[in-house]
Amino acid sequence: MGDRVALEKTFEVWILNSLEPSPMPSPSSKLLYQKMITKKSGLTVSLSIPAEGRVEIGQVLPVTLRVPPFEKSKFRGLAPLLTECVFKLREEAVGKTKVALGRTTRIPKDIYTLALLTDDWPKDGYSGLERVISISLPGYPTMSTSSQTQWLDVAYVLEVSMKIRAEGQKEKEAEALKAQFLLNVVAPHHVIAPHGDQLPAYE
User: Fold this and answer.
1) Could you read off the pLDDT of 69-96 as tens digits, one per residue?
2) 118 phi, psi to nearest 5 deg
3) CATH code assigned at 119
4) Does any domain span residue 202?
5) Phi, psi of 104 (to 5 degrees)
6) Domain that holds residue 66
7) pTM, full prediction
8) CA 8, CA 93: separation in Å to the nearest integer?
9) Number of domains in the chain
10) What is the DSSP string of 70-122?
C-alpha cells in the first residue's frame, strides 16, 4: 500500500492579516473545511479536502474551492473579480527528529506553488464559482547521512491565498484571504528507502 498521510483538522484562518478561528465542522464531517469571509463585502469563500480514511503518498488530492453566488449590493453593484489565487505546498520539520552524526534537519521549504490563471474565472461571478484543484503529495521525505538514512518527523502545509476586489477597484483595494491545512505524515514500518536500504519503523 505504501506510505500514508493522515489528515488532521486545523481551524486557523487568516482573514485580512488577522488571526481568527474558522467554524468547527460537525463531528461527522468527512471534509477538512475552512470558511473565509471578507470584511468589506461579506463574501464567503470555502475550501474543502476529502478526509474520509487516509490518503496515499503520491496520490492526487483534490481541493475544492467554492464561492457562492455574489450579491451585487455588497460590491456596490459591480462585478466581483478574483484577481489572485495561489496554492502553495510546503514541507516543515516538526517535533523531534532522529538524524545520525549530529546533522541538523532540513530548512522548511516550498515544494511547489500553483497559481490559478484568473482569466479562467467568469467575469460575471453572480452565479457562484467552483473549481477543483489537484494537489499531488510528494514521496515521504528522508534525510541521508554518510551512514544511514532516517525518517524525519515532517508535516506538509497546504496554504491557499487569494485576492478579491470589485470591478473598477484598484488592485491595492483588493481583500486578501489566506487559509492553511496541515497534513501530517505517518512514518511507515519497514519501508524500502530510495537507495534500497530497509529502514526500521520510526518510533
Assistant:
1) 655 555 566 666 666 777 777 766 554 4
2) -70, -15
3) 2.60.40
4) no
5) -90, 160
6) 4-186
7) 0.51
8) 16
9) 1
10) P-GGGGTTS-EEEEEEEEEEEEEE-S----GGGPPPPPPEEEEEEE--GGGS-
